[in-house]
Amino acid sequence: MKKYMHFRLNTPPLSFLVDRKALVLSIVLVVLVLATVILSTGLGAMYIAPLDVVKALFGVGDPGAQLVVLNLRLPRILVALLVGIALGVAGAIMQSLIRNPLASPDIVGITGGASVAAVAFITLFEGVSVHFIPFAAFVGAALVTLLIYVLAWKNGVTPLRLVLVGVGIGSAMTALTTLLIVAAPIQLTSKAMIWLAGTVYGSSWQNVLTILPWVLVFVPLAIVFARSINVQQLGDEVATGVGNPVHKHRFLLLMFTVALAGSAVAVGGAIGFVGLLAPHIARKLVGSALGALIPTAGLFGGLIVLLADLIGRLAFEPLDVPVGIFTAAIGAPFFIFLLYKHRNQ
Amino acid sequence: MFVLLPKPLGKVAGLIGLIALIICLMFISIVFGVMDTSWQTAVDAYTNFSGTNEQIVIKEVRVPRALIAVAVGASLGMVGVLMQTLTRNPLADPGIFGINAGASFFIVLAITFFSVNSLSQFAWIAFLGAAVSGIVVYVLGALGRDGLTPLKLTLAGAAMTALFSSMMHGMLVVNERALEEVLFWLAGSVAGRKLEFLTSVLPYLGVGWIGTLLISGQLNTLMMGDDVAKGLGQRTALLKGVTGLLIILLAGASVAVAGPIGFVGLVIPHIARFMVGIDLRWALVYSAALGAVLVLAADVAARWIVMPDELPLGVMTALIGVPFFVYVARKGLTRK
Fold first, then answer.
1. With contacts defined as CB-CB under 8 Å, which chain B residues touch A319?
2. Which of A24, A238, B8, B265 is the 20 to 30 Å CA partner of B250?
3. Who among A183, A197, A332 is closest to B159 (CB)?
4. Cβ B86 vs Cβ B243: under 8 Å
């Protein structure tokens, strides 16, 4: 069996390769994700059997179950899924862009920028609708990334400078976040702390609709630009040589990362390490060609956040432990393992 | 490389100037603030104590604060030189390396789960946290063929910081009682610290300062490279171990007293090298003095910027340090 199937159309002029293995894996993952969504929707203080969950989803069956499923649990679970997808894809792009397997939006300061803006919003604009927090976080992420990009610019942006400047700016953002938290009254402080820990608790359909467009627009766009990232991984010289507008596309792709990571952080808070973890698992299974990597990384990201939220919801009942704590607890040791594994590169 | 003070005489004069500057800043720190007092009141507070508010403020708040700022600043300046020498990395600093995060995490853990409140215990806990985080980052950064590259160290530090801070946030979300106590540490400040804070860690700091100055000559040799140092009969592994221990002692004690204060250790050694060159014996003494100047000045400025409130000191040093970090990152990488 050949590794790729190819598709060619004359009108519109379009051709692409489909990695068979990635296709099979993606289908398996989609099934797995769906199963987790249904299972997770059923579990909780009130148990609903998977079949009844499906019935409720289609608007038939027990009205009580419908209420719990459609109004309470499903929005939260969908937000977890979408946040995970966005973070996974953002991480996949960023790692390839920076050509370093240890990069991810939370390490190079993008999440830090979102944190400052969100915490500033929570602590300084008390009383303004919480629906604006995602917007603030998103703008924060975008502005800080722009700042990092500008500061790392010196006849173009090299991946190495991007990481180092990102880490530096990231610590400045941490300092500002701390400042805001310390200066705020205590009841707002704990609210900000919960946001910083990363949680999908209390998500509504409004939140689902906040993040959905970003995922729907930017994940396909990322897949379209996958070729460009693939070429860039060969190095700036090679990419320029084969006619890739390296700096233009690098900037564009960085903006995709911001759009995805920013919207994810906006609704889910500072959930860490998913952007790092998901692409790695995906790369192990489908290799590092971006066309295959992006969808699988997204699906793994979704699965990770779904599971982390499920554990956080059930393991310490009645306490609802924020997702971010579980992703960090798994992600940080994994990061250390990666650093160890890639020690020769 | 341009050196501001190439001659020994100039170096001595510069040091005297710095010490004068420290005394001058201490004077400002003690006398001015939300409540302005006079030098006379400050002297009276110790010689002719009458129990007025001003005298109490000076004795209980201002003098401890100034002394802690000097001690912490000097220690962080020295730690920066030690770390940058040991890792041969111009970006090394306790904040970037996750040492601050490790120490703060352990302190938060102790407050939350073991109800530890005694100052002398804080120091030991901070040492433990600093050691765990520092060693992990160092080992991770040093693995592999090219050794301690700035990129690997920075990433390892960022990862440890991310790990510790998310676990810290987790604990604080679950346990709100600890929140208020702990926020005090997280910001990094010398305000409101009692003199006992300083005296309880002073022995460790003293050992750290003297030890650092004692090994400065050997460190000069180590800077020429492991092979050269070994060739000259130096026991490099032992020296590196001792250096690591001194870093943990100084950085851990500083966090225990003042919370995580970043970027002092990054900025100061660069300025010190600019002033006196690469001889570590001078660079260390100058870093200690310059660190004290920076922390004192930042602390005074932190009081004045948002009067009558105060900016946390850790925020001030970050605001000064980050542009510097970016500058070093850009410069250091194009030279390659």
1. 174
2. B8
3. A332
4. yes
Q: pLDDT, tens digit, for every residue of B204-225?
A: 999 999 999 999 999 988 888 8
Q: At what angle do helices A246-268 and A110-124 cross, to 10 degrees?
A: 40
User: What ipTM score was computed for the predicted complex, to two decimals?
Assistant: 0.78
Listed residue (B29, B28, B56, B26) closest to B41, CA to CA: B56
Verify cis geometry, omega within 30 degrees of 0, for the bond prior to A12: yes
Query: Across the interface, do B169 and A193 touch by the CB < 8 Å criterion?
Result: yes
B172, two tokens: 């604080």
Q: CA B291 to CA B268: how far, in whole Å?
A: 6
Q: Which residues contact A170 (CB under 8 A, 6 or more apart)?
A: A107, A108, A109, A112, B158
Return the number of CB contacts < 8 Å for A and B: 158
Q: pLDDT tens digit string along B226-243?
A: 888 888 888 888 898 899
Residue at token pair 């003494």: B285
For A111-161, the DSSP string reads: HHHHHHHHHHHHHHSTTS-GGGHHHHHHHHHHHHHHHHHHHHBSSSB-HHH
Strand partners, A14: A9
CB atoms inside a 10 Å sphere around CB B295:
30
State the smallest CA–CA distance between residue A318 and chain B in angstroms. Answer: 12
Question: B167 and chain A: CB distance < 8 Å anywhere?
Answer: yes
